[in-house]
Model the fold of this input.
Amino acid sequence: MEAPLTYRSHTHLRDPELRQIDLEYQIMKTCETSEKQHQSSIQMIEAIQANSETMLKTASSNERHMGNLERGVVKLREVTADGFKRCERLLGNISEGIRKQIALLESINEILASPLETRTRELRENAERSIQEMLTCEGRDRDEYRSDAISLIELVIADPVGKLDYLAWFNYGWLLQYEVGSCEQAEEAFFQSRRLAKSDPEFRLIAIRFYANCLYHMGKYQEAYDAFREVETHDLFNDYRAAYEYARYCARLEFTDLATQSLERAIELFTLFGDLMWCESDFLEGDMDLQAIYDRAVDTIENRALGCKQAAQKAQSVIHTLADAVAPLASNWPHVTPPYFEIAMPTHRLSLATYEDEVDRYAIEVKQYLKDSLEYCGKVVVRLQWHEKDLAKQRNPIEGAGGKLGEAFESHFVLGLILTILLIAVLPLVFIFWLAASAGQSKERELIPKLSSMAKASQSELRIALKELDEFESRQKLEYPALTAE
Done:
């Protein structure tokens, strides 16, 4: 079989008809190939279309599944929230039930304990009334009231509920020590009162003081000193009685430095101790330099008086300067006079208590002087404002005369003519008077702002002085010493 003719093999055919046949054959082959490619493309497109439809169906199915999943999650969330709410309500009901049970138990406890507490409280109150009556009597009446009080308190502390009453134990100890004279029995009572008063810190310090004092009179100085170790440093050194007693115990044990600091603190809080310390054998028999302590207390009080004096002098200087400056304008100001204060420091130093009383009165007077000075400055500021407004309202006298003259011409010609002649006659005098008045007013207008600034500055200085005096007056607390001796 002969090989088919190709275009390449017949490119050199010379016959036109053969070349035409060959060309048509090549075109036919190309068309067939194109047709096959076209069919293949159609099939490929159909396959892609089918795949797209399949993917679309899959996506739609996935979307439905996702919607179902989302609805399921929402439903699960709702069910979970509802479950939590039910649990919360259930726990709330349980909690409310527990609270009701606690309240019921407390009410039952109050009902059961009320008769006992009421009885012990009434017994203690009756004992306290007997003590009050005892303090107002002498002789047999006093003995009877004392016996009644002791009997009543013994009934209280013999009761299971009353034995926890620290006030009853304290009253019992006080009666035993100061009326019966038995420190041994009183020591136990004060010990119980101190032990049971933990819920009342303020009273517990009192119980500790009496407990330590009882031990001190029994000769148990170390135990009396140790009793104060339970007290907070701040509480101890802010109670002048506790600080003073603590100083006595420290002095008795020869803790000289601690005793000195405690005594200085007690005197600072209550200067009468500066006089009483000379009567205490605890201080006199030790190595404490009582004169130095006394001198330091005097110096403290004197420094306070000196600070008050300096504040008064500063205020006096400010007020005198301001009063001299406003004197030309203040001649017609009623009720605006500078305050007066005689600056003289207290001089009595023989007794700390008397000296401090004098300084207290002096400090009160100085503070009042500063307040009066502030009030004076405020009045000056107000008066200057009023005076400035009055100057602004004053009119030119020639303008006033011209206005009156015009009104007179409008109403009565003859009267206006007479006034015109008079005005012409006295016009030179009026003009001279107006010039003088204008010059004075001009000076006053220039002076008022300066005086106002000076008065306000004086107010500021006085406020600062008053604040500094208050800060100086606040007692400078000593640095709290340690509660145990080295």
Observations:
- The chain has three domains: 1-36, 119-257, 304-473.
- The two ends are 136 Å apart (CA to CA).
- Confidence is low (pLDDT under 50) at residues 1-11, 396-401, 434-440, 476-486.
- The longest helix spans residues 16-134.
